[in-house]
């Protein structure tokens, strides 16, 4: 029997880099993009998490131990989160694909926080009441609590009232 391959990359709905800085309690220390601050605020996001040597160009990787330092030069990740103790070793050896480097006092804890946020994402639900689009079949006179999760394909009629923490699947 062949050994089972372990998936080392996780795809998820995009998250802005500015939010990642908060999640990992870090600070921006370098980047290869032009006008980095405005890039981060307006367009820079990532949608993949993985080991530095496995993640793609829309990904974030964490350098949390000496074992990962060597991969900083060859990663395809756009975003690297580096533990403060390893920063000097990593900065002189960054891959050209790295657009943003974030330093964190405890990158391992930041990694745990990010994985918790990713695990709470449920890809079945693309819409919440605050992001309803005109394409959805939701009557404007329906009353929907802000905590409701609505899967695509759901029809909500005039006069409907949807209470807190409700989860709606297609009818």
Descriptive overview:
The protein has 171 residues and is of the alpha/beta class. It is built from 5 helices and 12 strands. A 6-stranded mixed beta sheet has the order 1-3-4-5-6-2.
Summarize the model shown.
The chain is α/β, with parallel strands linked by helices.
Throw out a few tags for this protein.
alpha/beta, 6-stranded mixed beta sheet, single chain, 171 residues, two-stranded parallel sheet
Quick check: average pLDDT?
A: 80
Largest sheet: 6 strands, mixed
Shape: elongated
Sheet/helix structural class: alpha/beta
Distance between the termini: 44 Å
Task: Work out the radius of gyration.
Answer: 20 Å
Low-pLDDT ranges: 31-36
Order of helices and strands: EHEHEEHEHEHEEEEEE
- The helix tally amounts to 5
Q: How many β strands by DSSP?
A: 12
Q: How would you write the strand order of the largest sheet?
A: 1-3-4-5-6-2
Portion of residues in helices?
Answer: 10-25%
List the helices and strands and how they pair.
Layout: E1 9-16, H1 17-23, E2 26-31, H2 36-42, E3 45-50, E4 59-63, H3 66-69, E5 79-83, H4 87-91, E6 100-104, H5 107-120, E7 137-138, E8 143-144, E9 149-150, E10 155-156, E11 161-162, E12 167-168
Parallel strand pairs: 3-4, 4-5, 5-6, 7-10, 8-11, 9-12
Antiparallel strand pairs: 1-3, 2-6
């Amino acid at each position: 029997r062949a050994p089972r391959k372990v998936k080392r990359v996780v795809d998820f709905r995009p998250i802005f880099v500015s939010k990642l800085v908060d999640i990992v309690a870090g600070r921006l220390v370098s980047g290869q993009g032009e006008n980095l601050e405005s890039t981060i605020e307006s367009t820079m996001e990532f949608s993949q998490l993985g080991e530095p040597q496995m993640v793609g160009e829309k990904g974030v990787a964490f350098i949390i131990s000496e074992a990962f330092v060597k991969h900083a030069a060859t990663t395809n990740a756009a975003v690297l989160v580096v533990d403060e103790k390893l920063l000097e070793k990593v900065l002189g050896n960054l891959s050209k694909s790295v657009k943003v480097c974030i330093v964190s006092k405890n990158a391992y804890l930041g990694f745990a926080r990010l994985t918790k946020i990713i695990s709470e994402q449920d890809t079945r639900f693309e819409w919440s009441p605050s992001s309803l689009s005109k394409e959805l079949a939701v009557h404007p006179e329906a009353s929907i609590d802000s905590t409701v999760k609505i899967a695509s394909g759901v029809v909500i009629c005039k006069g409907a009232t949807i209470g807190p923490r409700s989860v709606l699947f297609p009818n």
